[in-house]
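Archive maintenance. Older records in this collection stored only the sequence; we are now back-filling the structure field for every entry so that each record is complete. The fields below show one back-filled record exactly as it appears after the update. Entries are processed alphabetically, and Peptidase is next in the queue.

ARCHIVE ENTRY
Title: Peptidase
Organism field: Streptomyces formicae
Length field: 195
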Amino acid sequence: MFERFTKDARAVVTGAVAQAERAGADSVTDEHLLLSLLDLDGGCVALAFGALGVTDRRASLESALADARRRGGMTKAETEALAGLGIDVDEVVARVEETHGVGALAGGGRGSGRSGGTGGTGRGRLALSGHRPFTPGAKKVIEQSLRVALGRKDRSIGAEHLLLALAARPGIVAEALAEHGATYGALERVMFPPA
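Back-filled structure field:
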């Protein structure tokens, strides 16, 4: 499948591995893919981030991802659903952190977070990753990028397809993007304006 990746898409994947290495993560997650996309210079992804104001709010986006990791990778919708059942996730997090330390549910860059958290078992390594396995969530994003490209009748998979796949996949990355105005629809309109 990687033979269909453009130079930018390959740079995103290798950049995600570098992001994981810098963070001391055992595996490459969908968050690392997003951070790598944010680092791209030029191209339609950088233009889309700029047009939607995401570039100027990178720190806010990273903070939203960190907050979700602190909640064990739970989205705000999941947190609200549990609140409806009488479970206060913030209270649970506080109690866990009292016992195990701040960020215990986040895994401190390691562990097995949900929704593309920073963990992984090391099984099913992605060929390009070399020594860092991709989490199932990150693999699904890469697979979804192929579907996005095919759906658009594009011959190759670009960074823009990876970004749309991240925005389409339910979880903390799509939620954080949406909170910053980068929904699937908004990204698609900016990157692929009608002719």
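Update note: The chain has one domain: 2-191. The domain at 2-191 is CATH 1.10.1780.10 (Double Clp-N motif).
Entry marked complete.
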